[in-house]
Amino acid sequence: MSVGRRPVQSRTIQIAPSILSANFAELGRDIAAVERGGADLIHVDVMDGHFVPNITIGPPVVRAVKRVATRPLDVHLMIEEPERYVDDFVNAGADMLSVHVEAARHLHRTIALIKSRGAKAGVVLNPSTPASALEEVAGDLDFVLVMSVNPGFGGQEFIPQSLDKIRRVWEMLDRVGRAAPIEVDGGIDHGNAPHVVAAGASILVAGNAIFAAADPEAATRALRTAADSMTGTRA
Length: 235
Ligand code: DX5
Ligand code: ZN
Fold this sequence. Notes:
The protein is an alpha/beta fold. 32% of the residues lie in helices and 17% in strands.
């Protein structure tokens, strides 16, 4: 074990339900349910129909969610030229704002912009993007989001190679001395949660596993129990 490694027992696991799979006509009710179940963050997926094939929501909905949520909003921008919308999303209530490395041409500047507006800045890696793409900005990041599906839709299957990606991101953050949490997003469920935690993830996004369940409150609680089952076992 190298010096600076962050073992599971020193990491706080955070559960971030993705409202993409919630009932959009009942967002307040669904958010309240996952908050009762112990959600730490509310994950909001913003898609523009260009960077990804799907279109979802924009700042007005984020603002409405902010009014009812009691947990910080983790806003995941799957849009081209994300720098154009940083102010809009921070003003709408984003506490954490992440941009894709594949979509941000001047990534360093965009990270600085997000932080200057008072939000936590994260960078997202698609499944085909190597961990090394973060190397030059790693020291500035508040968190890293590893996509474990190709972005665009909820309910897809977890890509198993994501576990190695999480390990490589961890090693890279370790190398530059940045203890930024690693978030994982896509196909997370009670079965793979312990494995992503063991690989180094500490923020778990889940859409389908929570909102397609009969009882989202109980599913949130069960996901945390599954994630916490690895406590103490990470080398
Ligand atoms: C996918 C989104 C995810 C999605 C996760 O592009 O970024 O946040 O909502 O949903 P599940 O957990 O169903 O894969
Ligand atoms: Zn997401």
